[in-house]
Design goal:
The protein has 209 residues and is α+β, with helices and mostly antiparallel strands. The chain has one domain: Ribosomal Protein S5, domain 2. 31% of the residues lie in helices and 31% in strands. It is built from 4 helices and 9 strands; from the N terminus they run ββββαβαβββαβα. It is globular. 42% of the residues are buried.
């Protein structure tokens, strides 16, 4: 995977990164501006996943471009996971040494009957705690279908590549669409707060994240 960017750019676009990754299964390109305005362009071949990534960019305040081509005739798993890998790598690169960031953030996000709790730490340590259960026979969303269990695979890939700690828990909910969307919006709002620059020092007694 090739990544360009990191830190504040001289052209005033803020913390940003561009990454490309190609394998036998997928070809992914991501452009990320952390200090953006929520402008999003997404095309992955999975309409529901596009909708979720759009929610992530908009509610995090990121400018986000995602273009993905994958072996959807085999399964959506490779495309979803690889987008997470590339987006997570972009986030890590764009945040640089994380000097001055707020670091910790949490959200309790409702969407009608669904309620999801999210907490994030830009810790430099990859860890995902994901408690959003779906029955194995839960129907996919959209066409081609997005298996709701793939949301966990996306977050695991993003967390690993971005080296952050993420906890996502379902408090209540029945509608599959609402539950998955609430997780994306909850993570987005938490990231929006966690990446906010409040000072100049790295927020750690180790002085590195």
């Amino acid at each position: 995977m090739s990544i360009e960017g990191g830190g504040d750019d001289a052209d005033g676009t803020g913390r940003r990164a561009v990454a490309r990754r190609s394998t036998k299964e997928t070809s992914i390109q991501v452009e990320l501006v952390v200090d953006g305005s929520g402008k999003v362009e997404v095309a992955t071949g999975l309409p529901f996943f596009d909708h979720m990534l759009s929610q992530l960019g908009r509610h995090a305040g990121f400018d986000l471009v995602v273009r993905a081509e994958g072996d959807l005739d085999v399964d959506a798993h490779h495309t979803v996971e690889d987008v997470g890998i590339v987006l997570g790598g972009c986030l890590a690169e764009a945040l640089g040494d994380k000097a001055g960031v707020r670091r910790f953030a949490c959200a309790l996000l409702p969407l009608d009957e669904a309620l999801v709790e999210v907490a994030v730490d830009l810790s430099g340590r990859a860890y995902l705690a994901y408690d959003v259960p779906f029955a194995p026979d839960t129907p996919g969303l959209g066409s081609p279908p997005f298996d709701p269990q793939l949301a966990e695979e996306f977050w695991r890939a993003l967390v690993t590549a971005a080296a952050l700690t993420l906890h996502v828990s379902l408090r209540s909910g029945k509608n599959t669409h609402h539950i998955v969307e609430a997780t994306f919006k909850g993570v987005a709002r938490s990231l929006r707060d966690a990446v906010r620059v409040e000072g100049t020092e790295v927020p750690s007694t180790k002085e590195v994240l």
